[in-house]
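Its record is retained below.
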Amino acid sequence: MRVLAIDTALEACSVAVLDTERADAGACESLPMQRGHAEALMPLIAQVLQRAQLDFSAIDRVAVTTGPGSFTGLRVGIAAARGIALAAGKPAIGLTTLATFAAPFIAADDTLPVVVAIDARHDHVYLQVFGPGGRTLVAPRVAPVREAVRVSASGAPRIAGTAAARLASLWPAGERAPTKVEQRGAPDINWVARLGAAATDTGTVPKPLYLRPPDAHPQDAVQLARR
């Protein structure tokens, strides 16, 4: 299976191609950025496909991160994935940023918990806690940072995500310290591709996972009255 993976949800614009039948046929590229995903994405996709010596018709499915993350960035990646999948007549698979951050840790050792924390601004994080076997202990949610620490502080977990260091800095003195803290601006795009290859195609198109409304709101007070 050949998977085109896209991630524009957080602090990078990333693309990968994975061929599950050939270890040497993949290619990937990740550009750190907080803005400008829309301008960077399509040229990056073209570059990675050229490096893998493939075109869109050779892709079996498209995988894309659906959030939580940047409201603008999510829309850029999901729109591109849905458009490419529609044009190629192939399925598009949506994957949460929380699951893609956790995947390499669960694959390495599924006996220890994994806490994924993504900065949601205003002293909040997007949070998910995975237990043994990768099962969800705390479902995806937005929570104040100190509440996130409270529900996560057991079992010497691994912590990953854009707010991993923040959670670790507030760890309670009486609890076992985290086994590992990996502060990353975005998930590993190769794991987005791997999860995309393994996921079941449900036939539904990827949609953003926001977990909370946007900070920006319409300025109703300054709207002109209709005649």
The CA atoms of residues 106 and 134 lie 6 Å apart. The chain is about 30% helix and 25% strand. The chain has a mean pLDDT of 93.
